[in-house]
């Protein structure tokens, strides 16, 4: 299966942009943890499989979709969703590495510095999120979603 990277980027950008109003106009989305039904958990599991599969193969935007799934289907607040997304991202990266490494498709020259940057950024982001709270994180997340969408669609 071969997918044109430019087309995929545009599709992901449009999907991200379509999800942005949920953050912008829903007063409570991601601010508090809430209990969800078993049916929503089951649907969330299917959504997780789709998002994690996409994330393992293509990456771009996968973390954002993952956070939406964790908030919407599992009732996490946005800080909890980000924290859980980190662990799921590590699992996805490790699994992808095991698949792509034998094919010689892993570029350690870029991967190692990017991983170090991700660890530093995650640590700084976690401290900021805990200090500033869910409302602050939600608006930062919305800004990143819109900026990423614009980049993917137009550049």
Element layout with pairings:
Blueprint: H1 5-25, H2 38-57, H3 62-74, H4 78-100, H5 108-132, H6 134-154
Helix pairs in contact: 1-6, 2-3, 2-4, 3-4
* Uncertain stretches of 5 or more adjacent residues: none
Main β-sheet, in a few words? none
Backbone structural class: mainly alpha
Shape: globular
Distance between the termini: 25 Å
How many beta-strand segments? Answer: 0
The helix content is over 70%
- Strand % is under 5%
Count of separate DSSP helical elements: 6
- Report the oligomer: single chain
> Order of SSEs, N→C?
HHHHHH
Task: Write up what this structure looks like.
The protein has 155 residues and is mostly helical. Helices cover 79% and strands 0% of the residues. The model has no long low-confidence stretch (mean pLDDT 90).
In short:
With 155 residues, the protein is mainly α. The protein is built from six helices and no strands.
Label this structure with key terms:
155 residues; mainly alpha; 79% helix; 0% strand; globular
